[in-house]
Write a structure and sequence with these properties.
- It is a single chain.
- The chain is mainly beta and 656 residues long.
- It folds into two domains: 253 residues, Beta-galactosidase, Chain A, domain 5 (Distorted Sandwich); 298 residues, TIM Barrel (Alpha-Beta Barrel).
- It is built from twelve helices and 43 strands.
- The strands form eleven sheets. Strands 7, 8, 9, 10, 11, 14, 16, 18, 19, 23 and 24 form an eleven-stranded antiparallel beta sheet that branches.
- It is globular and about 80 Å long.
- The N terminus is likely disordered.
Length: 656
C-alpha cells in the first residue's frame, strides 16, 4: 500500500467565539494528538500515556503578499487509519511495518483574501507528524512564504540536548549542549534533531521528514516559546519559500517514547517519504570505502614509484580493498590538490575548476578498469560548486569512466535552492548509476527511501577534526546516537587505528591520532547508522592489527535493529542483524563502566559469540583489546567492561 500525501495547515488570530476540536489516538493508544481552532487560531496538544507533553502550541503561516493568515475556520475534517509495509533498499531495517491514524483538516480565512490550507496530522505508535498543504488560491498561482510559526510548547521544562548554531550557513559540525530549556537564550538557533527529556523519563526528539522544494527548519525560542525557523533564500532575509500551488511543507516530526531506544529504532522518517523513484535498483550496492585524504594518502616508504595523483597510488589502495573485501576506493587528492583540474585554494573551486579534466598523469578510466578487474568500485570527491555547473556532462563522463559514486562536499546550506540542488543531484546521479554521499550537508530527512542512491550524509562534528583540533572525544561521540543519528545515516570518518591516552594526544595532519579506545572505534561501526562506512586509515595501519578482522566483515546496511541500552550522555548498546548474523556495539563516554547485555533477541539455537573488549590496560594503552569466543543462546548474558572512552563489539554467528 502506498502512502498518500495530503493537505496542510495555517495560523493566526481573529476573534472567533467558535471552537472546533479534533483528536487522533495512536494505534497502540499511548499517544493522543488533538487540534483545536479557537478565536481563529489553530493550536495542538499531545499527551503520552495520559501525561501532557505539548499543550496549546499554536500554528501559523505568514506570506510576503497578504501577511499572516488570520481568522481561520476549520472545514469538514477527514480521518482515516493507515497501514503500510515496505522494504528499504538501504537502511537500519529491511522490512518496515507502520500503522498510523490521520486527519486532514481544511483551514480557511473568513475574510479577504480567503486563503486556505490543509493541515494533515499522522499519529504513529512512536511519534506524531504534521504538515501544511498549500491549496490553490483565487487569482493567484504562487506564493512567497516569509515565516512558518510552528510552535512546540512543552508543558514542563525539559532538558535539551542540541547543537546550537550561529547562523544558517553551516556545515552542522559542532559540540552539543545539554541545558534546561528555560536556560536557552531567545533567538538561539537550534539544529535538528534535538532531544528533549521530560520528567518521568519521556523523550521527545523534534526533526523533519521529506524535505523537498522547501526551506530547512531549525528551532529557536521566540518570546520564551520553542518555534520553527526556516532558512532564507540566498541574497535576502525575508522570503523562505517560493512555490506554485498546490505545494506541501515537509513533515514536522516529534518522536516520543518513555524508552529512548524506541526513538533510535523508529522508522517514522522513511514512512513519511515517498516510495523509491528509481526503477532499477540492481546497481545500488552500499559498502565500505577507503578515504585516503584523512590519513594523508600514506603509502609505504619502500615503493619504487612517486606517490601522488597517479595510477600507482590508487592501485596500492585498490589492491588493499581487493585483499580485504572492501567495496570501494575513493579518489580524493594528494598533497592538498584535488584529483581534478582546479586553480582555487584549500579545495575551493577557482575560475577554471573542471571536474571533467583529471590532473595531468591521472587516467581515471584506467583506474576504474583496474579496480573493476579486482572486484572493487571507484568513487571520487568533488566540491559541489565545481560539479554543479557541469552536472550533466560530468555524470555522463563519470559513467563512461566506470565510476560508481561520489562524495559531494561543502554544501553548507539548506535553503530551498540548496534543497532542490541536492535532489537534482540525486535524480541525475541515479540516471548514470552513481551513488551519492553528501558532506558539509544538512541532516537526512528519510529521503533514502525515495532515492536509495543517497548512501550517507555528514552534518556532524567527526574524526576529521583530529587532523587539526583536540575537541573530539567520547563525550561527543555518545551524543550523536541521541541527536544527529535519529535523522539517519551519519558519516563520521571512522577507522583511525592509532589510539592514545588523552594526555598523549597531539594534533597531526598525517596519520592522525585517536583519543578513545580501539574497541570504541570498532563499536562505532555498529552504533552509528551509515550505509557508506569509511576505513579512513592507510593499509599498513590495518593489516595484521587486532580488530581489523571485525571491520573486514561488518555490514553497512541491516535487516533489523534493537537498542539494548541507551542512556543519553552516558552509554549505548545496539544490536543489528544482517541475514542470520547479529552484530552488537557498545560505547561509553569518558567514564569507565560495566554493562551486561541480555541476548534474548537471538533466535533459537546456539550462536558463536566473537567478543572484542577493552584490554585491562586500555587506560594507558587504548589500542589494546581482548578477543575471545564462546557459545551462547538467547538465554545467555554477556558482561562487557568498558574502559574510559571505551567500547565493545560482538559478532554473533549461528552455529551449524
Amino acid at each position: 500500500m502506498q502512502l498518500k500525501h495530503i493537505l496542510l495547515i495555517v495560523p493566526l488570530m481573529f476573534p472567533f467565539a467558535l471552537k472546533s476540536q479534533h483528536a487522533l489516538t495512536s494505534p497502540d493508544g499511548n499517544l493522543r494528538f488533538s487540534i483545536q481552532v479557537q478565536s481563529g487560531i489553530p493550536a495542538y496538544s499531545i499527551t503520552y500515556k495520559n501525561k501532557p507533553v505539548i499543550a496549546d502550541a499554536t500554528l501559523g503561516l505568514e506570506f510576503l503578499d497578504g501577511g499572516k493568515m488570520t481568522g481561520l475556520k476549520s472545514g469538514k475534517s477527514v480521518s482515516r487509519s493507515g497501514a503500510e509495509e515496505y522494504e528499504l533498499f538501504v537502511g537500519k531495517v529491511k522490512l518496515v511495518k507502520d500503522r498510523f491514524r490521520e486527519i486532514i483538516l481544511p483551514l480557511t480565512e473568513q475574510a479577504e483574501p480567503y486563503r486556505s490550507v490543509n493541515f494533515i496530522a499522522r499519529v504513529f505508535n512512536d511519534g506524531v507528524a504534521f504538515r501544511y498543504e498549500f491549496q490553490p488560491q483565487q487569482n493567484r498561482d504562487s506564493f512567497r512564504l516569509t515565516d512558518e510559526k510552528t510552535t512546540f510548547r512543552f508543558v514542563s521544562n525539559p532538558k535539551v540536548l542540541a547543537l546550537f548554531l550561529p547562523g544558517f550557513t553551516t556545515s552542522h559540525e559542532g559540540l552539543y549542549t545539554s541545558i534546561p530549556l528555560d536556560k536557552v537564550k531567545n533567538d538561539t538557533l537550534m539544529d535538528m534533531p534535538a532531544l528533549f527529556e521530560l520528567p518521568g523519563n519521556i523523550y521527545v526528539a523534534i526533526t523533519e521528514a521529506a524535505l523537498r522544494d522547501y526551506a530547512g527548519m531549525y528551532l529557536s525560542k521566540k518570546n520564551g516559546v520553542l518555534t520553527s525557523t526556516l532558512s532564507s533564500l540566498p541574497g535576502q532575509q525575508q522570503v523562505k519559500v517560493k512555490a506554485g500551488f498546490p505545494h506541501k511543507s515537509p513533515w514536522r516530526v516529534l518522536m516520543i517514547s518513555d524508552r529512548m531506544g524506541a526513538l533510535i529504532e523508529s522508522n517514522i522518517l522513511t514512512s513519511l517519504n515517498e516510495p523509491t523513484a528509481i526503477n532499477d535498483l540492481s546497481w545500488i550496492k552500499p559498502g565500505m570505502s577507503t578515504f585516503p585524504w584523512w590519513n594523508g594518502t600514506i603509502v609505504p616508504d619502500s615503493v619504487s614509484w612517486t606517490p601522488g595523483n597517479n595510477f600507482e597510488t590508487n592501485k596500492y589502495y585498490i589492491d588493499f580493498c581487493s585483499r580485504n573485501n572492501i567495496a570501494y576506493h575513493s579518489v580524493v587528492e594528494h598533497g592538498g590538490h584535488e584529483w581534478y583540474t582546479n586553480d582555487g585554494e584549500n579545495y575551493q573551486p577557482g575560475p577554471n575548476a573542471d571536474v571533467t579534466k583529471p590532473v595531468p598523469g591521472l587516467d581515471m578510466k584506467a583506474i576504474c578498469d583496474y579496480a573493476r578487474a579486482k572486484g572493487v568500485g571507484v568513487r571520487v570527491w568533488v566540491h559541489w560548486q565545481a560539479l554543479y555547473p557541469k552536472l550533466d556532462e560530468a555524470f555522463a563522463l563519470f559513467e563512461k569512466w566506470g565510476l560508481q559514486g561520489m562524495m559531494v562536499d561543502f554544501m553548507d546550506r539548506d535553503d530551498q535552492q540548496m534543497v532542490n540542488i541536492q535532489e537534482e543531484i540525486l535524480k541525475k546521479a541515479a540516471r548514470h548509476k552513481l551513488h551519492i554521499q553528501f558532506h558539509g550537508a544538512y541532516k537526512p530527512t528519510g529521503m533514502h527511501r525515495t532515492y536509495p542512491n543517497e548512501f550517507t550524509r555528514e552534518g556532524t562534528l567527526n574524526y576529521e577534526v583530529n587532523k587539526w583540533d583536540t575537541i573530539m572525544n567520547a563525550d561527543h561521540d555518545i551524543n550523536i546516537p541521541f541527536t544527529r543519528m535519529l535523522a539517519g545515516s551519519t558519516d563520521y570518518h571512522l577507522g583511525g587505528f592509532r589510539a592514545v591516552a588523552e594526555k598523549d594526544f597531539r594534533v597531526q595532519y598525517l596519520k592522525p591520532l585517536m583519543m578513545s579506545t580501539r574497541c570504541h572505534m570498532l563499536a562505532m561501526y555498529v552504533v552509528l547508522e551509515n550505509y557508506q562506512g569509511m576505513l579512513c586509515d592507510y593499509p599498513e595501519a590495518y593489516e595484521g592489527q587486532p580488530g581489523f578482522d571485525f571491520l573486514r566483515g561488518v555490514p553497512v546496511t541491516w535487516d533489523e535493529t534493537r537498542v539494548l541500552h541507551a542512556v543519553p550522555g552516558k552509554y549505548i548498546c545496539i544490536a543489528r542483524r544482517r541475514n542470520n548474523d547479529w552484530y552488537l556495539g557498545a560505547i561509553t563516554n569518558r567514564e569507565a563502566r560495566n554493562i551486561t547485555v541480555d541476548l534474548g533477541f537471538l533466535g533459537t539455537g546456539t550462536f558463536n559469540a566473537e567478543i572484542y573488549t577493552d584490554a585491562a590496560d586500555a587506560g594507558k594503552h587504548p589500542d589494546h583489546l581482548q578477543q575471545r569466543s564462546m557459545p551462547v543462546t538467547k538465554k545467555s548474558t554477556i558482561a562487557l567492561p568498558l574502559a574510559i572512552g571505551g567500547g565493545a563489539v560482538i559478532h554473533l554467528k549461528k552455529s551449524l
